[in-house]
RNA sequence: GCCCUUGUAGUUCAAUGGAUAGAACAGAGCUCUUCUAAGGCUUCGAUGUAGGUUCGAUUCCUACCAAGGGCACCA
């Protein structure tokens, strides 16, 4: 359709003897201003120093029948010039056809942007021995959504989770466990994991406040690398298993499953080897091995790759990880999703990788998202003022459970619905905004169940579904026949169903998905779905969809079905489930 | 000090250089004998400051102000 309109404009401009390179077509911000519009008159007027409004009117006049030998094109209802823009209104047929297309294709919205491409997405990255905090929830929501969006765009997505199972943070947690003792045997896995997270915070406090503790923790860290202490090995293996199992329970609720789990303990030696083999890139300084990135780019800075104790830092591990990813899967694009606090250091690592292996570096893409912040300041698991992702999830789901307690659901259904809706509330609040921006977490407001929210979208879907259930019972099948009347019937008032905003938005879904994929930005989909759901709810509010006496009723059912398909696909792309009832 | 993000209604977020800057929450007021009121309909209310580029700037450039992050052995 876009092409048709573009060609039409080209044809007219040619007739008017106007040269133009690109024709920029967009959807006007307001549906009242047509389905497509172009600012071509303004750009041309600028070049030729003529009046844009007059030119727009001239173009429109030339597009209309009875002027010259151009016929009014069959696919347009109306063309108008307004404020220098040229607006195109599509014919009803186009919208009805688009509804048919949606009903024929349950995967409506897919595109070919990444066809035959393999894209690895690394996200979530919680560390064993530390709590699963809100930041992990955020990275998970974004990474999962991006994975689904690239899949919907033809890519083979490979989900990877990179976890720091070695390093000072582990030593701190183990120091805490040695000092304060192990948790009771009969506690649940999440309880044990929570306990380990608390002791990590204590270990960290001790590390900063107490010199002896610092020394002890450094020793534990060294022993962990060497695996030289039987007792520490035992605690380590146990704690690693417990925290990883606790994470799995959270992934299950969130609806994520990974193809790969990478661990720092495994990539560290690979990274160390890379650093040793590239002496031309790295330098020795104060007993450490460092990389002077500012030599290559003044905006970058120096970072330590091997510390003065001979232990590899995160930078080195990251090099090892990259190598491992490419050797295992050789992705066309290797995406890493993290919070922006890692943005600067990641650029340094990327620069180092560029010197070591330019091919790998060119395929890496680091997506940074904002931080989840408290009004009172930054959350840090080191300080212990974190709201864990787990507790937030439980709270969100709990609030839903309270809300549906009187509904006609079995206990099993209640649990499932409250989980699906609770997760939706959280994920939507993360995904509705630009990836880059911080999210200010407010316990009162951040989890929203009404208005601009995940549950609102789910509710709209459940409503549509309920209409469709009723339609099935009453044998009201989706249909279009009534819209193909004899020519004379066109005049019959009330025969045609006016095209609503729902149709005008539905056909745009694939464009939105495409844009989201191109920019790796899920929020376009989130915003689109809200607009669509709002249009449907308005339609629903003043339309009786199932009505045996209404010849348009089959079409209304078809429209409802099309809406339910699109909203379900859209929610899927956000990583949100669409319950049939809620 | 240098570098990276970000400044839009009271609050949380939108707006490929375009039209009257959109929503939601909060506030005021309607609305369930119709398919789910987690809904619908009214209403009040905003581009950090100062310049610049442009027919046109929330968007691009410069400076300033403010918030967050990073800047050598944490991740």
Short summary:
This protein is of the alpha/beta class and 582 residues long. The chain has 20 helices and 14 strands.
Description of the molecule:
- By secondary structure, the chain is an alpha/beta fold.
- The chain has 3 domains: 2-90, Arginyl tRNA synthetase N-terminal domain (Gyrase A, domain 2, 2-Layer Sandwich), CATH 3.30.1360; 123-387, HUPs (Rossmann fold, 3-Layer(aba) Sandwich), CATH 3.40.50; 391-573, Isoleucyl-tRNA Synthetase, Domain 1, CATH 1.10.730.10.
- It is built from 20 helices and 14 strands.
- The chain has helices spanning 2-15, 40-48, 52-63, 92-104, 134-152, 168-180, 189-209, 211-226, 230-254, 264-277, 314-329, 343-356, 358-363, 389-403, 411-431, 454-473, 501-506, 509-519, 523-542, 553-573, and strands at residues 25-26, 36-38, 76-82, 85-90, 118-122, 156-163, 260-263, 283-285, 288-292, 302-306, 333-339, 364-369, 372-374, 439-441.
- The strands form 4 sheets. The protein has a 5-stranded parallel beta sheet, sandwiched between helices.
- Helix 5 links the parallel strand 5 (118-122) and strand 6 (156-163).
- Mean pLDDT is 88; it is low at 66-70 and 483-495.
- The structure holds one RNA strand of 75 nucleotides.
